[in-house]
Amino acid sequence: MRKFNYKNLAEKCWDNDILLLCSRIHESKGRQELFVRQKPAQLERLVEISKIQSTEASNRIEGIVTTSTRIKKLFEEKTTPKNRDEKEILGYRDVLNTIHESHDYIDVSPNHILQLHRDLLKHAGITYGGSFKSVQNYIKETKPDGTEVIRFMPLAPYETPEAIGLICKSYCETIALEIVDPLILIPAFICDFLCIHPFNDGNGRMSRLLTLLLLYKSGYEVGKYISIERQIEKTKDVYYDVLQEIDRGWHEEMNDPTPFIKYMLQMVLACYKEFEERVGIMDDVGVKSSTYDIVKSYVDNKLGKFTAADVLANCPSVGRTSVFNALKKLTSEGYVEKHGERQKAFYVKKMTGQW
Question: Which of 88, 56, 59 is nearest to 69 (CA)?
Answer without folding.
Answer: 56
